[in-house]
Amino acid sequence: MHSYGTIREFKTRNFRVIVDAVEDDDTDLSFDDTGEVLAKLNSGEFIAFTARVRVFHKDLGELAADYLGGCIYESIDDFMDHMDCGEATRKLRESGSDAVCGSYFADMVHTAIKEARQSVARAKSIKLRTV
């Protein structure tokens, strides 16, 4: 699987989280009625990729991953939109709206970390006989 690059890497108290962009072999362009998106992909103005979030533990290795294919952006960095969405949600709240700006990036990170925590909990519940 070819990687286009790291979008973000960070550590929490227990985990190392890597968000990167990998090759998307099957990008769905069925929505592109005009051919504009395909033209921008071919020219390099857009990039198509699969976003991948992986969560690692220093002793246990990779515990969880989440993938989202069909991402089309001007750059892989544009995928990391959680701060802009947070600001947009704050503005909506100030105007009295209940609407929420969603972020694929934030959702994937939360999902993968939740899965990693569940993996650690399952591992702790395994009873082993000592020698």
Polypeptide structure, described:
The chain has 131 residues and is of the alpha+beta class. It has one domain (3-124). Helices cover 32% and strands 31% of the residues. It contains three helices and four strands, in the order E-E-H-E-E-H-H. A four-stranded antiparallel β-sheet has the order 1-2-3-4, with helices on one face.
Short description:
By secondary structure, the protein is of the alpha+beta class. Helices cover 32% and strands 31% of the residues.
Assembly state of the chains shown = single chain
| Helix share, percent | 25-40%
* Total domain count: 1
Spatial ordering of strands, largest sheet: 1-2-3-4
Shape: globular
Q: How many β strands by DSSP? A: 4
pLDDT below 50 for ≥5 consecutive residues: which ranges?
A: none
Order of helices and strands: EEHEEHH
Largest sheet: 4 strands, antiparallel
Radius of gyration: 18 Å
Alpha-beta classification: alpha+beta
CA-to-CA gap between the ends? 41 Å
Helix count, DSSP H or I runs of 4 or more residues: 3
The average pLDDT score comes to 88
Labels describing this entry:
131 residues; globular; alpha+beta
Structural topology:
Elements lengths: L2 E9 L4 E7 L13 H8 L3 E11 L3 E13 L8 H13 L9 H21 L7
Antiparallel strand pairs: 1-2, 2-3, 3-4
